[in-house]
């Protein structure tokens, strides 16, 4: 949720109950809903929220989102609460997945990215519908956003992702430090999110497919060649079975 003290934007409401509780707690109305992709844990709360909604539902044009919603393509701009969000096509987890980026040019607050299940802190989504090449390109687009962009991922998977990242790059000091920070936050019941693009470039193996240590580990895991797509594909397969 993003709000201005009066009105809120809701992102990927998988469940209506916590959204309604937060709106009531803080006395907020609902100005709009942003959906990144079609999975039930991102759209499951839509029907129950619509009676309270005082604005549109936006979603990816190429996916089957519960209607009505305003379909968005890459490059579209959504305006809510006086903020512009640029729509970015980021296929890989699903084939029509989109992300929403607010550049906040000239404002005091840093930019904001809602990236759904494409980018997690120290990880990425599973490739349910897309290819390694698509996910590699999607993550490259996100990596090119401003370094101070606040990365609002849809799941708190950081701790287990960092365990995997450390296996990929045992000598990466940023990952070792992130593990300590992450464990301290989680022990207090606090989130590790939002992350930043700067941080993800340093600790996220899926955003580091051109780094020698990452390429080396991917080749050991059976990457067909040293291209970004092959490295990402091998990492993703490895992570799927990593415990
Ligand atoms: Zn998903």
Shape: globular
* Rg for CA atoms: 18 Å
Strand content: 15-25%
The CA-CA distance between the termini, in Å, is 32 Å
Per CATH, the class reads Alpha Beta
H and E string: EEHEHHEEEEEEEEHEHHEHHH
Bound molecules: zinc ion
Task: Round the mean pLDDT to the nearest integer and report it.
Answer: 97
CATH architectural category: 4-Layer Sandwich
Strand segment tally: 13
Number of folding domains?
1
The level of helicity is: 25-40%
Low-confidence stretches: none
Structural class: alpha/beta
- CATH fold title: Metallo-beta-lactamase, Chain A
Question: Please, how many helices?
Answer: 9
Protein traits:
binds zinc ion, alpha/beta, 5-stranded mixed beta sheet, 243 residues, globular, Metallo-beta-lactamase, Chain A, 13 strands, 9 helices, 6-stranded mixed beta sheet
Describe the structure.
- With 243 residues, the chain is an alpha/beta fold.
- It has one domain: Ribonuclease Z/Hydroxyacylglutathione hydrolase-like (Metallo-beta-lactamase, Chain A, 4-Layer Sandwich).
- The strands form 3 sheets. The chain has a 6-stranded mixed β-sheet. It has a 5-stranded mixed β-sheet with strand order 1-2-3-4-5, with no helix packed on it. Strands 10-11 form a two-stranded antiparallel sheet.
- The longest helix is centred in the last third of the chain and has 15 residues.
- The protein is globular.
- The protein starts with a strand and ends with a helix.
- The mean pLDDT is 97.
- The chain binds zinc ion (ZN).
- The site of zinc ion has 4 residues, from loops.
- Zinc ion (ZN) binds next to loops.
């Amino acid at each position: 949720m993003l709000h201005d003290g009066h009105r809120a934007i809701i992102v990927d409401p998988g469940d209506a109950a916590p959204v309604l509780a937060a709106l009531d707690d803080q006395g907020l109305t609902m100005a709009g809903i942003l959906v990144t992709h079609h999975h039930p844990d991102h759209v499951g709360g839509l029907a129950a929220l619509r009676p309270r909604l005082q604005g549109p539902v936006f979603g990816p044009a190429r996916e089957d989102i519960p209607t009505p919603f305003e379909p968005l393509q890459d490059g579209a701009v959504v305006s809510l609460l006086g903020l512009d969000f640029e729509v970015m096509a980021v296929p890989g987890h699903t084939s029509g997945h989109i992300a929403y980026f607010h550049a906040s040019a000239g404002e005091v607050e840093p930019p904001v990215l809602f990236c759904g299940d494409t980018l997690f802190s120290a990880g990425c989504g599973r490739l349910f519908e897309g290819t390694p090449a698509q996910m590699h390109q999607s993550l490259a687009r996100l990596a090119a956003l401003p370094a101070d962009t606040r990365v609002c991922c849809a799941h708190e998977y950081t701790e287990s992702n960092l365990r995997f990242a450390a296996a990929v790059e045992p000598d990466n000091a940023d990952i070792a430090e992130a593990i300590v920070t992450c464990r301290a936050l989680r022990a207090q019941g606090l989130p590790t999110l939002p992350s930043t693009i700067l941080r993800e470039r340093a600790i996220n193996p899926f955003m580091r497919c051109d780094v020698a240590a990452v390429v080396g580990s991917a080749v050991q895991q059976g990457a067909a060649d040293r291209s970004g797509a092959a490295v990402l594909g091998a990492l993703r397969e490895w992570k799927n079975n990593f415990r």
